[in-house]
Amino acid sequence: LYASPESLGEALPVFRLSDAHAGLAAVFEAEQKMSVVHVIRSPRASLYSWWSSHHIAKNPEGVYDLHRAHLHRLTDEYGLAPEDFEDYALEKLVELELWWWRYANEVPIRSLSHSSRFMVMPIEAMSEDPVAAARIVYRFAELLLRREQEDGIRADTSHFFINTPRSTDLAPEMVTECVSKVMADSPLKEIYPGGYAPGEGAEAAGA
Q1: pLDDT digit string (tens) for 35-59?
Q2: What is the pLDDT of residue 59?
Q3: For position 17, what pLDDT does the model report?
């Protein structure tokens, strides 16, 4: 969107992929010109956004059943006990969604972080300074970010660059407890110590 024609050369097209962690490593190895920018968002903000979107809050039990249908992946990866998630409860739904957040981020980071063609970009950094984040990504992709493209980014007031969790009726105490449980031994704590982006911990605690 913001790349200048002169900078593109023979660069590959850009694709936005969601939930592509399962086969990403194989494609990444096969496509040697492919680079991946893994955009990650804090577990709490991701959870609130997920809850506020589409049909989640309207049909939580149906979403819970969908999560349970693929529970074997989490069982294989983290040793979760299926019997702990037999009956619906809101707290169990929240915990499962956070486990999926962890899985969807840990798997590609673990699989691809050995390569110089892979980088992680927290969405909070994009929100705090979109132009600085764009410079990092463009440099990583070996593209030229021109002044007019920077001006376009500065003028962009879309929700994409706003990292404010939407309103929710999920109890902050429950969210905090579930985040702490899921993140207890996660390497993602290096990005989100305590499971929160800067400033989120105090807000979640009601400070």
Answers
A1: 999 999 999 989 988 888 766 778 8
A2: 87
A3: 72
62: Cβ contacts below 8 Å, ≥ 6 apart: 55
Q: What is the pTM of this model?
A: 0.84
Q: Taking CA 161 as the corner, what is the angle to CA 95 and CA 9, rounded to the nearest 5 degrees?
A: 115
